[in-house]
Amino acid sequence: MIRKAKAVWRGTGRDGGGTVSTESGALTGTPYSFRTRFENEKGTNPEELIAAAHAGCFSMTMAFILQGAAYTPTELDVDAAVTIEPEGAGFRISRSALTLRAQVPNLDQATFARMVGDAEKNCPVSKVLNAAITVDATLIST
């Protein structure tokens, strides 16, 4: 399976800008620039897209792990916070912090903790990131 996206950039790094689009159409000509990445201009940036991918991937991986053990989650609410920091002459993504709030009927805390660890290790986005990954997971009683 191959998934595709496209970026088009015009101009210099600081003053230029671009758009990103995805094959599915979820993003179509979405703007990004220095200002959307390092300031607060409307648009997106690579770190935000990675955070969205990580949150989505982790929640789906967790859902499959739960399903495999005959649990059906009511809700898996995942936030991802990706950190970019200076490194040498450039930058690097150093961390992705996941926060999970899970509502899963009849699931005990020990089993939940084991499943969270499995999801973190087996999420394809976690596997591709060369960054520290943390997961703050809470099982909410239903």
Order of strands, widest sheet: 1-2-3
Q: Would you tell me the structural class of the helices and strands?
A: alpha+beta
Which spans have pLDDT < 50 for at least 5 consecutive residues?
none
Task: Tell how many strands the DSSP assignment holds.
Answer: 6
Our count of domains comes out at: 2
Which percent band covers the strand fraction? 35-45%
Helix-strand pattern: EEEHHEEHHE
Mean pLDDT: 96
The CATH class label of the largest domain is Alpha Beta
What is the alpha-carbon Rg in Å? 18 Å
Q: How can the largest sheet be summarized?
A: 3 strands, antiparallel
Fraction of helical residues: 25-40%
What does this entry look like structurally?
The chain is α+β, with helices and mostly antiparallel strands and 142 residues long. 33% of the residues lie in helices and 37% in strands. It has two domains: 5-38, no CATH class; 46-140, 2-Layer Sandwich (GMP Synthetase, Chain A, domain 3). It has four helices and six strands, in the order βββααββααβ. The strands form two sheets. The chain has a three-stranded antiparallel beta sheet with strand order 1-2-3. The protein has a three-stranded mixed beta sheet with strand order 4-5-6, covered by helices on one side. The mean pLDDT is 96. This is Peroxiredoxin. Residues 1-26 are annotated as: Disordered.
